[in-house]
Amino acid sequence: MTGYAVVLASGELERVQAVSMISSIAASSDTPVQVFVTMNGLSAFEKDRVENGDFQVAGPAGEAMLQGSGDEVPLFTEQLERAKGIGPLEVYACEMVMDLMGTDLDDYVDVFDDTLGVAGFLNRAADKQVLFV
Amino acid sequence: MSDTPSPDIEIDSRGAACPGPLMDLIGKVKDVESGTVIELLTSDEGSKNDVPEWLEEAGHELLSIEEEGDYWAIYIETT
Predict the structure, then answer these.
(1) CATH number of B9-77
(2) pTM of the model
């Protein structure tokens, strides 16, 4: 196994958090991970949204995370940031969606290595197990 | 307990949910020499079960897990 290529196509907090947890632990354990953030997934990374905690949630787990009850769950942005300092984790933003939304990387929190198109993602995913979230 | 290992390093991850304690441990394990005994404190029951899984895959030794009331002390020796 040469790692995981994760497609994050949803902006729901539960899914974004799950991707960040799994990717962070894998990369910290020296398993290469590339996360391709596309479609509504990108919206969760907007600076304003992250600052205000204004996330789309799907159900009770997401609501509990937003309320911060119980033990502290680190937000996906901090988790990804930290894991990138420990192991082989790369995060890419989808060029097509950014064109569609009229945004550039400065509109998003600083976790992205670069922007990427579909061909670029497929090249990187060729030797990896793909997870679509 | 008389056979509690004496740690070289303590990591206090109490109050952090999964996967916080595991991330704390992994970060530290990468910095230390082999043969280092680490004591990881966690109040997260999921981590108590997940840390041994990671240790098995990463090849480090689980010395013991001790229940300390509302948290656990996990002792690890790096290889």
Answers:
(1) 3.30.110.40
(2) 0.86
